[in-house]
Amino acid sequence: MPSTTRTIFLFSPILALAATASQPSRTEPQERSALAGPRVEIEQARVSLVKRGFNGRVERLETSPEEAALAVLVLSENEKKLTGQVLSERAAIIDQAVASNIPLLLKLQGFRDADRSERLALLREWSEALRPLRAHGSLADELAACLSPANAASMKTLAKEYNEALLEEASRSPGNAAGKIGSGPRSTRAQALAAERLLGLGLELKRSYDRIVAARAARLDETIKLIEATPEQEERIRAIALEFAQQSLGQPTPALQRDFVRRLTDVLTPPQRVKLLTAGFGK
Fold this sequence. Notes:
Blueprint: H1 12-15, H2 65-72, H3 77-99, H4 102-107, H5 116-129, H6 131-134, H7 139-144, H8 149-172, H9 177-181, H10 189-217, H11 220-226, H12 231-248, H13 254-267, H14 270-280
Helix pairs in contact: 2-8, 3-10, 8-10, 10-13, 10-14, 12-13
């Protein structure tokens, strides 16, 4: 999965902090009991969420590892339906939390420059804002309840393997994201875990931003008027929106949506971005 090369300006401070499949070969036994009947063997390639780039570092997912795991497992139609409902409900809760805390969202622009106490205070505020999500329990447990025992176990194994790979890499890499959270000269596993949680929060907030800005921008004429676009900006915005519509055909993938939001915000000034963000939440 390609890593994000650019991030929306509101979330760059947080995000800046921070499978190969193999088919085992088997040979069919030469002798088989005549009474055993035909035997069907289902081979499954070993899958992993851990992929490494040319530099040997783990390529970060653009979703949670649990959600990414669902994409590589063979799910029944009912499992797809139930897990989809869980993901949609959790996304709606995050969107509502962001919608109700725009001033807090804007504070993230100064996250990198804040001291440790200010960072912790900001994280506590977001933790409180996301209280309704915590009431649902962990994402892994909520998804597992929708899956067969085998698929639930596989999902958790894939997610654990990915998380462990990130923690191991962060713990032994000098100057990594974890070191920015702790105060010691060397990063520890606890610091690496704190950093990964922070990065996960930044990713969730950014995805929420992408969803809402993309939905708002779909109402193109209203949006152009709202942000008081110049003639040159209007021309570029309409061209970007047309290309997005042609590519997505009404069903945009997360990658298309992310690219559309990035290109759109590149056209806007910081005050226009704030206007778009605020209006996107119905304010």
